[in-house]
Amino acid sequence: MAVKQVILLLLTAIVVGLAVNLVSHNRIDFIGGYRDLSGGDGPIIPPDAESGDPPFIDVNLAQFEYSSGTSLFIDATLPEEYECGTIPGSINIPFEQLPDDLEVYFDSVLHGVPKDYPLIVFCTGEECDLSLHLARNLRGFGYTTVSIFFGGAREWERFGLEIERKKPCGQ
Amino acid sequence: MRSVVDNDYLTLVSRLLIGGIFLYASLYKIIDPGTFARSIWFYHVVPGELINLVALILPWLELLCGLAVILGIFYRGAVVWANLMTIAFMVVLLSTIARGLDIDCGCFRAATSATEPAWNAFWFDVGMLVFTVQMLFSRSRRWQLQRGR
Prior knowledge:
The complex is a heterodimer of chains A (171) and B (149). Chain A is built from six helices and four strands. Chain A is α/β, with parallel strands linked by helices and 171 residues long. Chain B has 149 residues and is mainly alpha-helical. Chain B has one domain (2-137). In chain B, helix 5 packs antiparallel against helix 6. The longest helix of chain B is centred in the first third of the chain and has 24 residues, at 8-31. The A-B interface holds A 1-10, 12-14, 16-18, 20-21, 24, 26, 28-36, 55, 64-65, 68, 70 and B 30-34, 37-38, 41, 44, 47-53, 55-61, 63-65, 68, 74-78, 80-81, 113, 149.
């Protein structure tokens, strides 16, 4: 009797869970594309990081967020570098070319992005600290869920993840 | 001892407590399965391909068990699941502690890195297990909608 009920409860949960997902506005893929990037050594944290900085995430978590599609990736490098290789689907906010009126600029470039939407800021690699500075600015202007993927596009590529190249560039 | 375990009032308290906890725990997970998937991912115990399926099915199992335990419908099956899930959560929490992962349990809200120790969640589950085991061995069938075994 109990075994029958155990099976019935499980089957009901499977059917209802999958069916509700089909019509939910918070729908997720049935099969996630997450990979376990073993060998990832934890987040890279630059020496000039401060205790109040946005959190640093490693390549494992970055690719998880990328696969789940619930975060916006922001490349802080110059447009020339951005076009040479970036994380697919990311947008470019070049920190070194930010205008004076940052609030208006962020509102225009992140138009329609809620202030609490997860933002993941990165640049080319660990020699580049533009992501750190851009993340600090974003948080200063009210974006509450900012993370820094300090390993950047280079670490992303090193782990065999896809890189989007908008133009061919010399290595 | 037998009369304590079989006590109608104690069994009712266990049903309401455990059923309520499972109901409450299921809600944020059902509303936001993507966030719950992230919580599961933090544990690194479920293969990547299966994370979303677990995130979609487990909360409904919790909800159904919570309702079944409170109402007394499919009672034996729900009590078995309540025990299995509580033990499974404890094993997973112990494994995160053993591996040095410092994460929140994600039981009632999204798990994040390094917030409160997994030990707190583990001891909470130990407390829950006392009540789920009591329900498992109790022969009390009072105040249940579905009579019989």
